[in-house]
C-alpha cells in the first residue's frame, strides 16, 4: 500500500511538485500511521494552475459539446477499468470500507457517462415574438473552483468536474487536505482520456488555498462541499465578488417511521441512514422519529442488526464499517456521545472505541444507538458526522412534521409508511432538498441533489447541475422594422 508519489498537484496534464509548500501528511485512518507526504500549493503553483486553466478554457468552450462528451466518456471507461486501484486509494485516504469505495468509483463513472451523454443535447431555447426571433445560449462560466470535503473526495471531485467540463468550463479543484489523493488520480484519468491540458487542475492545500482561488479575478464560480460555517464564509466571499456559488453543506436530517411501515424495511432505513461511511455522510438521517406504538420493537430490531455490522479492516472486502477519518473526528464523535449521556439520553449499544485486532492505532468507534433523545439535546441538534443514531418517539403526523422541520438545516429527509396519501403529504411538507419514501441514502447522478436553509444553495447532479455551471445569454434578431420612439 503506497500513496501516490508522483507529485502533490496535477497541472496542465502532468503531476507537479513544489516542496517549498507546507507539508500535508497522509494518515491511514485504520492504523493512524503516516503513509506519505504531499505539499500545499505555493503561489507559484497556484499561478501555473490559474494561467493554465485560463488559457485552455476558451478553446474548450468552442469545442462541440458532443466532442467534450466523448472525452468524458473515455474517462468513464478508464475509471471503470481502474476501479480497484482508485477505490483502494480512496479507502487509504478516508478509511471507508472498500465495499463502499468501489461503489463510489462506479458512481463517478456514472457521472462521467451521464454528463458526457446529455451535454450534446443541452442547449438554450428559441422564441418567435412577432417579427423578432429570440434565442438563448447556455454559455460556460469560465474557470470554476471546486473545493472538496474529506468524506467523499472522489465523488466531490468527480461530480463537480464532470458537470463543469461538460458545460465547457475549466476547473481547478482543491481537495480537503485530509483526503487529497482521489482528485489526483481523476486528473491522471482525464489526461489519459485526452482532456486538453489545463482544463482540470488539482492543487493541494488548506482553507487559504481555496480562498485564494475564489478571490482570484480569473475564476468565475465556486462549488464547495463542506461544513455550514465554511460554506457561509466562502459564499460570502464569492458574493462580495459577484461570483456564483454552489454550496453542498451539512445536515441533521429527520427519518420518520410511522407505525404501519414494514418493520424490517424501516430498520434497513435506520442502518443506511446512520452507519454507512461510519456515519460520515451529510445526508444522514440521524434524527430517527419512531411512532410510539412500534418504538420498542424497532429499537430492539435495530440493535440486533447493528450487532451484526462487520467493523474491521477497511481493505477487507467483507468489512462493512471502517474507522472514522481522523483522530480529530474521533474526539468530536466521542464528545457528542459524552454529551448525550450527560444530557440524559439512554445508551442502547456502542458508545466506546471499537477494538480491531492488528489495527489498534486506528480511529475506531462502535456503532451507537441512543433512545430517550429529546429535541433540545445536543445530539439531536448538531451534525455529529459519526455512527450515532438518535431515536425519538412521536405520536402524530402534525407533531412529527413540526419537530422534523425545527432545524436550521434542510438537506435530506425520509418517511416510512405504507399509506400512500400520507407518504406524499409528509414528503411535501418536510423542509429539505430531498425526501426518500421507504428508502434512504440513494443518490443517482441523474437526480438533482442539494439542500435548503443552511444546508446549501444550488444543485449538483441532474440537468439542474448544468444550469449552475452555465449562464444564460438572450439574443434578439429583428426580422422586421426596428421599433423606435424617436
Ligand atoms: P470543511 O467545511 O472544514 O472544509 C470543506 C473544504 O473547504 C475543505 O477543502 C477545506 O479545506 C475548505 N476550506 C476551509 N476554509 C475555507 C475557506 N475560508 N475558503 C475556501 N475553502 C475553505 O468541511 P470538512 O472537509 O471538514 O467536511 C465535513 C463537512 O462537510 C461536514 O460538516 C459535512 O456535513 C459536510 N459535507 C456536506 C456534503 C454535502 O453534499 N452537503 C457532503 C460531504 C460533506 P481544509 O479542510 O483543507 O481546511
In brief, what are we looking at here?
With 486 residues, the protein is α/β, with parallel strands linked by helices. It has helices at 43-62, 65-81, 83-94, 98-118, 153-166, 181-193, 207-215, 228-240, 263-274, 295-306, 327-342, 378-381, 397-405, 420-429, 462-468; strands at residues 9-11, 14-16, 23-28, 33-39, 126-129, 132-140, 143-147, 170-174, 200-202, 219-225, 245-248, 254-257, 287-291, 346-349, 368-371, 388-394, 409-410, 412-416, 434-437, 452-453, 456-457, 470-478. The structure holds NADPH dihydro-nicotinamide-adenine-dinucleotide phosphate (NDP).
Could you explain how this protein is built, in words?
With 486 residues, the chain is an alpha/beta fold. Helices cover 39% and strands 21% of the residues. The chain has helices spanning 43-62, 65-81, 83-94, 98-118, 153-166, 181-193, 207-215, 228-240, 263-274, 295-306, 327-342, 378-381, 397-405, 420-429, 462-468, and strands spanning 9-11, 14-16, 23-28, 33-39, 126-129, 132-140, 143-147, 170-174, 200-202, 219-225, 245-248, 254-257, 287-291, 346-349, 368-371, 388-394, 409-410, 412-416, 434-437, 452-453, 456-457, 470-478. The strands form six sheets. The chain has a seven-stranded mixed beta sheet, sandwiched between helices. The protein is globular, with a radius of gyration of 24 Å. It starts with 8 loop residues before the first strand and ends in an 8-residue tail after the last strand. Bound molecules: NADPH dihydro-nicotinamide-adenine-dinucleotide phosphate. Residues 147-152, 174, 176-177, 206-207, 210-211, 224-227, 230, 233-234, 248-250, 282, 383, 385, 411, 451, 456 line the site of NADPH dihydro-nicotinamide-adenine-dinucleotide phosphate (NDP).
Amino acid at each position: 500500500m503506497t500513496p501516490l508519489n508522483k507529485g502533490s498537484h496535477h497541472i496542465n496534464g502532468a503531476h507537479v511538485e513544489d516542496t517549498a509548500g507546507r507539508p500535508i501528511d497522509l494518515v491511514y485512518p485504520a492504523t493512524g500511521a503516516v503513509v506519505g507526504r504531499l505539499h500545499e500549493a505555493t503561489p507559484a503553483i497556484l499561478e501555473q494552475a490559474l494561467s493554465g486553466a485560463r488559457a485552455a478554457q476558451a478553446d474548450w468552450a468552442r469545442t462541440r459539446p458532443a466532442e467534450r462528451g466523448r472525452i468524458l466518456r473515455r474517462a468513464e471507461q478508464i475509471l471503470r477499468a481502474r476501479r480497484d486501484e482508485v477505490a483502494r486509494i480512496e479507502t487509504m485516504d478516508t478509511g471507508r470500507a472498500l465495499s463502499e469505495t468501489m461503489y463510489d468509483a462506479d458512481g463517478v463513472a456514472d457521472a462521467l457517462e451521464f454528463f458526457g451523454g446529455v451535454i450534446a443535447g443541452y442547449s438554450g431555447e428559441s422564441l418567435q415574438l412577432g417579427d423578432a426571433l429570440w434565442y438563448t445560449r447556455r454559455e460556460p462560466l469560465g474557470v470554476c473552483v471546486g473545493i472538496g470535503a474529506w468524506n467523499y473526495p472522489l465523488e466531490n471531485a468527480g461530480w463537480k468536474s464532470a458537470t463543469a467540463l461538460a458545460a465547457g468550463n475549466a476547473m481547478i479543484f482543491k481537495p480537503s487536505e485530509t483526503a487529497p489523493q482521489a482528485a489526483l488520480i481523476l486528473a491522471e484519468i482525464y489526461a489519459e482520456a485526452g482532456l486538453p491540458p489545463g482544463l482540470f487542475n488539482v492543487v493541494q492545500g488548506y482553507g487559504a488555498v481555496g480562498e485564494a482561488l475564489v478571490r482570484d479575478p480569473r475564476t468565475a464560480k465556486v462549488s464547495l462541499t463542506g461544513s455550514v460555517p465554511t460554506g457561509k464564509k466562502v459564499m460570502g466571499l464569492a458574493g462580495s465578488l459577484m461570483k456564483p456559488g454552489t454550496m453542498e453543506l451539512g445536515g441533521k436530517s429527520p427519518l420518520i417511521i410511522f407505525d404501519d411501515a414494514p418493520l424490517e424495511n424501516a430498520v434497513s432505513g435506520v442502518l443506511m441512514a446512520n452507519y454507512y461511511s461510519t456515519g460520515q455522510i451529510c445526508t444522514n438521517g440521524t434524527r430517527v422519529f419512531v411512532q410510539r406504538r412500534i418504538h420498542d420493537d424497532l429499537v430492539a430490531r435495530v440493535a440486533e442488526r447493528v450487532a451484526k455490522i462487520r467493523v474491521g479492516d477497511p481493505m477487507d472486502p467483507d468489512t462493512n464499517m471502517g474507522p472514522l477519518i481522523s483522530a480529530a473526528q474521533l474526539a468530536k464523535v466521542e464528545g457528542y456521545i459524552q454529551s448525550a449521556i450527560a444530557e440524559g439520553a439512554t445508551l442502547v449499544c456502542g458508545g466506546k472505541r471499537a477494538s480491531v485486532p492488528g489495527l489498534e492505532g486506528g480511529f475506531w468507534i462502535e456503532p451507537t444507538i441512543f433512545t430517550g433523545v429529546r429535541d433540545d439535546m445536543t445530539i439531536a441538534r448538531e451534525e455529529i458526522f459519526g455512527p450515532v443514531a438518535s431515536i425519538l418517539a412521536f405520536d402524530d403526523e402534525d407533531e412529527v412534521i413540526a419537530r422534523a422541520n425545527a432545524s436550521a438545516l434542510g438537506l435530506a429527509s425520509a418517511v416510512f409508511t405504507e399509506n400512500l396519501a400520507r407518504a406524499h403529504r409528509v414528503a411535501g411538507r418536510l423542509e429539505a432538498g430531498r425526501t426518500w419514501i421507504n428508502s434512504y441514502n440513494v443518490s443517482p447522478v441523474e437526480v438533482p441533489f442539494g439542500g435548503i436553509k443552511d444546508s446549501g444553495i444550488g444543485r449538483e447532479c441532474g440537468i439542474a447541475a448544468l444550469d449552475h455551471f452555465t449562464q444564460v445569454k438572450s439574443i434578439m434578431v429583428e426580422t422586421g422594422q426596428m421599433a423606435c420612439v424617436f
